[in-house]
Design brief:
about 325 residues; five-stranded parallel β-sheet; seven-stranded mixed β-sheet; alpha/beta; about 20% helix
């Protein structure tokens, strides 16, 4: 049995695992992947303390190594159920296994949205992907498409332009939502062809993706475009169906927390993008991870009848 199980391996979860481990709490981090959405970001330039550009996957690897240095254990798994036992502990079910803990920290972030067009599910992993940082190297000197208009789509298009022979950037509107400096770079990139006011209506191929059908939403003109890969970057959603009745969720299905990362269920805490925080940023997620970890630590002190330190760096369990 663990003191803490952290669900999620992004910046919030890895930071929470670091802080609980440093408090000598036995900590298990269960995550579907390393880094979460952060791992799909190619160039991070605004994380405090890193003057030079660092990739999201590299930053995630550093965070994981630091948490493990203080004793946190990390395993890959997809959590499907959390149930409370009669003794007040929790059982966390993942894959075909389960682990017990005295407290839980939810930090599994958001999951990619689908286009919901014909061919998307059929060619998922066969040319349809949701992670440029993971799969871009597979498309060297090939033709690819990126769908979306936010920073993640712009970052993906920029990164792919350094690898692929040509990049189509498909956006439903006539202007981008990303940072102005990034938009300027994309518009001036000769390897990127931007299809404004457009949407993919079908992804085609045989064994692998070979092309796509694109519709102009203003003129309704339809054209066939040959591509070898489609990178979907149209936002993320909260996949919290398994938490219905376990913790409070808002209308967006985000986990509702107070300013200390405390949910409405004693013993369960949450942090990062999966919560109702206003902004979804790496630096914010790490700070929220710290708060949730310290709140969980205080909860365990109270549960064990131990005195509460006046300072957050005080007495260990």
């Amino acid at each position: 049995m663990y003191d803490i199980i952290v669900v999620g391996g992004g910046p919030a979860g890895l930071t929470a695992g670091l802080y609980t481990s440093r408090r000598t709490l036995s900590t298990l981090i269960i995550a579907k992947d390393l880094g979460g959405q952060m791992a799909s970001t190619t160039d991070i330039e605004n994380y405090p303390g890193f003057e030079n550009v660092i990739s999201g996957f590299e930053l995630a690897s550093k965070m994981k190594k630091q948490a493990e240095k203080f004793g946190a254990k990390f395993i890959l798994g997809d959590v499907s159920k959390i149930e409370k036992k009669e003794n007040g502990n929790f059982l966390v079910h993942y894959n075909n296994n389960k682990e017990e803990a005295q407290a839980i920290i939810l930090a599994f972030g958001l999951t990619p949205r689908n286009l919901d067009v014909p061919g998307e599910q059929e060619f998922k992993g066969k040319g349809v992907t949701y992670c440029a940082n993971c799969d871009a190297p597979l498309y060297k000197n090939k033709i690819v498409a990126v769908v979306g208009g936010g920073n993640s789509a712009l970052d993906a298009a920029d990164y792919l332009s350094k690898i692929a022979s040509k990049v189509y950037l498909i956006h439903r509107r006539d202007q981008f939502r990303g940072e102005e400096v990034v938009v300027k770079e994309i518009v001036g990139n000769k390897k990127i062809e931007i299809l404004y006011d457009s949407a993919i209506t079908e992804i085609k191929g045989d064994r692998l993706v070979k092309g796509m059908t694109v519709k102009n939403l203003k003129t309704e003109q339809i054209k066939e475009v040959p591509v070898n890969g489609v990178f979907i970057e149209v936002g993320r959603k909260a996949s919290t169906e398994f938490l219905e009745g376990v913790v409070g969720l808002n209308e967006k299905k985000e986990v509702v927390v107070d300013y200390n990362g405390i949910t409405n269920t004693p013993g369960i805490f949450a942090c990062g993008d999966i919560t109702n925080v206003s902004h979804k940023q790496i630096a914010i997620a790490t700070g929220e991870g710290v708060k949730a970890a310290l709140s969980a630590y205080m909860y365990l002190l109270r549960k064990r009848g131990q005195s509460i330190p006046g300072m957050d760096w005080g007495k260990k369990v």
